[in-house]
Amino acid sequence: MLTVIMSNLLLNPILIAIGVLYILCLKKFNVLVSLLVAALIAGSCSGLSLKHTMDLFIQGMGDNAETSLSYILLGALAAAMIQTGFSSALSQVLTRWI
Fold first, then answer.
1. Model confidence, pTM
2. Mean pLDDT of the 60-69 span
3. How far apart are CA 42 and CA 57, in angstroms?
């Protein structure tokens, strides 16, 4: 009985997608790409068509669009600060000031 429960739990599409998302984020993949890949894997493991999977993904993102956009813009700002060297310059100025 326990073996059947464990095998069903390990083959759960949500747990598989979360595992994939976790691994991709640890490998420093882009978060949006990781979310998309995890959603596609969850949909395919659930037996959904690609179109239905993407419809559900977009609908889910649409319900939280304001929050998602805020996080995306915050991440883009952080990446831009690192790429331009602004964060290093700011930390040096703050270190001298303190």
1. 0.57
2. 73
3. 10
